[in-house]
Design goal:
Blueprint (H helix, E strand, L loop, with lengths): L7 H4 L3 H10 L1 E5 L4 E3 L7 E15 L5 E7 L4 E2 L13 E14 H10 L1 H27 L2 H16 L3 E3 L2 H8 L3 H13 L3 E4 L2 E4 L2 H7 L2 H11 L9
Antiparallel strand pairs: 1-6, 2-6, 3-4, 3-5, 3-6, 7-9, 8-9
Bound molecules: zinc ion.
């Protein structure tokens, strides 16, 4: 068995391949708000997160912005740029602080093209991201604010793995495409029902189980996809 690094993708690799990638990279701390890649620019580095949560955000030409997905210890920030030359339409930054193995994109790209095992696992991670993107796109159009907010909080909590998260109401409102007053109302209702406590921009998850009951089924789709990642052996 390979050593446990904390990153699920790295930990799913054979010991030799894991050691090779670890030797290419450098472990770094990633404080909150650290930018991992800029919108419209290919990044010099990709990041295997050990902890923390990275948020991928698209800003429109006229100024509004929206979060499109979250990544944590399950995968690799910058994986899309291993697939081709196009720059990302999004920016990615650390929403909640953590640490990562930072590897030069060019070096990982060579290994990705030459090593089937790494290719299979990274494609599996990208499939997982695609599943969540499809589900949340429909969710954002069709489900109520409370269901969407709970789904998002649970996905964040699964990745951060700490009960208290620093998340401002403005940020929550921008993610949910709603007004700050609506976030205040929904957070107040969840607090009254004993599921969270919310104080000065810090949300504490008090009952993951009760929140799951309040979420739409979109949470289950994304969480099952996360749970099943890297469980299938790679066939020769
Ligand atoms: Zn939904």
């Amino acid at each position: 068995m390979p050593a446990t690094t904390g990153n699920l993708l790295l930990d799913a690799l054979s010991p030799e391949l894991q050691a090779e990638i670890l030797s290419l990279g450098r472990a770094i701390d990633l404080p909150s708000r650290t930018v991992l890649h800029e919108q419209g620019e290919r990044s010099t580095y990709v990041y295997f997160l050990y902890s923390g949560v990275a948020s991928v955000v698209v800003t429109m030409a006229e100024g509004g912005s929206a979060e499109v997905c979250l990544t944590g210890h399950e995968g690799l920030v910058g994986a899309l740029q291993l697939l081709g030359p196009a720059p990302p339409p999004s920016q990615c930054y650390m929403l909640l602080p953590g640490s990562a193995l930072r590897v030069r994109s060019e070096e990982l790209s060579q290994l990705f093209l030459n090593t089937r095992e790494l290719r299979v696992r990274i494609l599996e991670f990208l499939q997982h991201q695609g599943i969540c993107l499809e589900q949340t796109t429909a969710c954002n159009k069709l489900h109520e604010t409370e269901q969407r907010m709970v789904r998002w909080l649970l996905l964040c909590h699964d990745r951060f793995r700490q009960d208290t998260m620093t998340l401002t109401q403005e940020f929550m409102a921008s993610i949910l495409g709603t007004r700050r007053t609506t976030v205040t109302m929904v957070a107040g209702s969840l607090q009254e029902r004993g599921m969270i406590s919310y104080r000065r921009g810090r949300i504490t998850i008090l009952s993951h189980q009760e929140l799951e009951k309040a979420a739409c089924h979109c949470y289950r789709v994304c969480s099952d996809a996360l749970h099943n990642l890297y469980r299938h052996p790679i066939t020769p």
